[in-house]
């Protein structure tokens, strides 16, 4: 099931936000980031937003995903950039305010096994016939 991610706002006072789920929840969670934008009160300065997560060796890594400036790029569409919680969004430069929005997708274990069964049953398509003239 998909839920609207209520979003978060990063400012000079609140420079980071962490999205996490209950550790005892056995569902798979995906956070899809769709948009990052400057909001009212933003100055014409570079605002760099980073995503902070963990790599396969469990080391913290920070990757910039947006560099916004009011006069040239106040909004960036991220086309549902998928992240696996826990993930932290950090305002690495600038004072914001920067708003982030997206979707939170929850896949329950029984849903995942159902989808895997669908992938196994391939349907054979009829051959393509030439068009009639």
UniProtKB/TrEMBL annotation:
Gene Ontology cellular-component terms listed: cytoplasm; nucleolus; nucleoplasm
Biased composition (Acidic residues): 113-125
InterPro entries reported in the protein's UniProt record: Nucleoplasmin, Nucleoplasmin_core_dom, Nucleoplasmin_core_dom_sf
Subcellular location: Nucleus, Nucleolus
Family: Belongs to the nucleoplasmin family.
Keyword Metal-binding included in the entry's annotation: no
Keywords: Acetylation, Chaperone, Methylation, Nucleus, Phosphoprotein
Organism for this UniProt entry: Hemiprocne comata
Chain residue ranges for the region called Disordered: 112-133
Source species, domain of life: Eukaryota
Name of the molecule in the record: Nucleoplasmin-3
Molecular-function GO terms, alphabetical: chromatin binding; histone binding; RNA binding
Residues of the Nucleoplasmin core domain: 7-105
Quaternary context: Interacts with NPM (via N-terminus). Forms a pentamer with NPM at a ratio 4:1 (NPM3/NPM). Two pentamers form a decamer.
Alphabetized Pfam families for the sequence: Nucleoplasmin
One Gene Ontology term from the biological process aspect of the record: chromatin remodeling
Primary role: Plays a role in the regulation of diverse cellular processes such as ribosome biogenesis, chromatin remodeling or protein chaperoning. Modulates the histone chaperone function and the RNA-binding activity of nucleolar phosphoprotein B23/NPM. Efficiently mediates chromatin remodeling when included in a pentamer containing NPM3 and NPM.
């Amino acid at each position: 099931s998909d839920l609207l991610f209520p979003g978060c706002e990063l400012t000079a006072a609140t420079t980071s936000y962490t999205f996490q789920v209950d550790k005892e929840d056995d569902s798979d969670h995906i956070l899809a980031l769709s948009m990052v934008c400057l909001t009212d009160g933003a100055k014409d300065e570079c605002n760099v937003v980073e995503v902070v997560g963990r790599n396969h060796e469990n080391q913290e890594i920070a990757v910039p995903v947006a560099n916004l400036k009011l006069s040239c790029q106040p909004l960036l569409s991220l086309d549902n950039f998928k992240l696996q919680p826990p993930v932290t969004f950090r305002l690495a430069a600038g004072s914001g305010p920067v708003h982030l929005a997206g979707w939170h997708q929850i896949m329950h274990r029984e849903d995942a096994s159902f989808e895997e069964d669908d992938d196994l049953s391939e349907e054979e398509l009829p051959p393509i016939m030439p068009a009639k003239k």
